[in-house]
Description:
It is a single chain. This protein is of the alpha+beta class. The chain has two domains: 3-99, 3-Layer(aba) Sandwich (Aminopeptidase); 117-269, Aminopeptidase, CATH 3.40.630.90. It is built from eight helices and twelve strands. It has helices spanning 3-15, 24-31, 75-87, 101-106, 142-153, 158-165, 206-217, 234-242, and strands at residues 36-41, 44-54, 58-66, 91-97, 110-121, 133-136, 172-179, 182-191, 196-203, 224-230, 246-255, 267-269. Strands 1, 2, 3, 4, 5, 6, 7, 8, 9, 10, 11 and 12 form a twelve-stranded mixed β-sheet that branches. A hairpin with a 4-residue loop joins β8 and β9. α1 (3-15) packs across α2 and α2 runs antiparallel to α6 (158-165).
Amino acid sequence: MTPRDADVALDWAATEGWNPGLDDARSFYAADPHGFFVGTWEGALIGCMSAVAYGDAFGFIGLYIVRPEWRGKGFGLRVWNEGMAYLGARNIGLDGVLAQQPNYRKSGFALAYRNVRYEGVASADEDHVDGVTITDALNIPFDRLLSYDTRIFTCERAAFLRAWLSQPQAHARAVAAIDGDAVSGLAVIRRCGTGHKIGPLFADDLSTARALYRALVSALPGETIFLDVPEINPAAVALAVEHDMLSVFETARMYTQAAPDVPLAHVFGVTTFELG
């Protein structure tokens, strides 16, 4: 893909109802410019897929779309094979719709757990949580934010994180929780075609996650909020439920090898279903 192709792919994702963020294409492409693939027919784009490599050991697949009129002809499989070949022997993850699990199993993926998308409405009375210090993430040296993100994501994604945190302020806001000199939480909210998505929402504990969530939504009363939660983390589910959010969608988190040693107790919101 070219950067312009990435914009087209995100437009397709919106058409599919995946509701991407308004600035997702730039951040996604920054993660690994070599990891985005398109299928063309006589110069026209007919399919796409992202296969982002995070170093030599891990990769993540997303944005696997074939235009409706070109489905069932084998073109999607050709794009898929290109992406899989690019990632090679890495452990590969994806968030797939549940109906596609059998097809992903045929390609060597195994279910690790489910991620659940929750939807709610930001309340005008959301407030900060006592005892938790929240600041604009851009006030924190990037290397400290990267260190915290890497500890939870389990591998470095510096190029992506830098782009993700610096999206236009009209479209996104990033906040961090600090405990003395240490970062104890990191969260981003971004505007989407419909409402706003929070992701990541990483925190050392439920109180910190609650403070981050409320800091992000407090300026958006009445707006629709989405949060993608690892079902395997009961505290994350509790956070969504206590804010009157309802489950509206779920994915199967799958890997080709053993699930990475992600500290899921600290994952209250997945960064993005497309890139992990």
